[in-house]
Amino acid sequence: MKQLLVAGALFVGLAAHAQNTGTKKATPTPAKPTAAANSLKNQSDSISYAIGAMVANFYKQQGIRNINSNMIAKAVSDVYSDRKVLLSESECNSIVMLAMNPELKKNIEAGEKFLAENKKKPGVKTSPSGLQYEVLTEGTGSRPTDMDTVTVHYRGTLIDGTEFDNSYSRGQTISFPLKNVIAGWTEGLQYMTVGSKYKFYIPHTLGYGMNTQGPIPGGSVLIFEVELFKVNGKD
To answer: Could you give the angle at which helices 102-118 and 89-100 cross, rounded to 10 degrees?
Structure first.
């Protein structure tokens, strides 16, 4: 099941929610059928209603109140009838995560506003992916590909100036395969030559997405000053 709004995928969240309670509960005694349960004529009715109730209860507890039950029914019908769904899996996840987390929406909107203003500044270039970058110093060495390992120094901040990482303060450069980092770095480092220093302004879609990573809130634009010292195997 691929859509977050219908059965299967939802139980990942439901299971995780149950596991995080921290206590083990005894196996519940099956409840006696209520009068309302008489409308459940067969096993299919019971399973269908149970899925609906579990999903609704879970998202109600997350604070999602304004729903259209007709659209929920349509989504379920589209999936089970193998019709084309209106939203992709990633779109479903994004919509629900934003609805469950107002702070996340605020971070994304602040980042979009920042990038819209930042792209107007002299010297700031914007790639087709939305990555913004600024050349602080242009080097003359080789240029890496996404298959290379690079050695760099860097400093990372949020748009409010909060520093979340700094290799300079540790006094040691870092080396890593370029294909194993966030998309904004994989793309941005390929514009650089050895000896260059660039400043990257990375949208959340090319960074950590909507996920919180330590001191980095979900939906954050990331700002990095990066110096490229070596492309391993070339210099």
So the answer is: 110
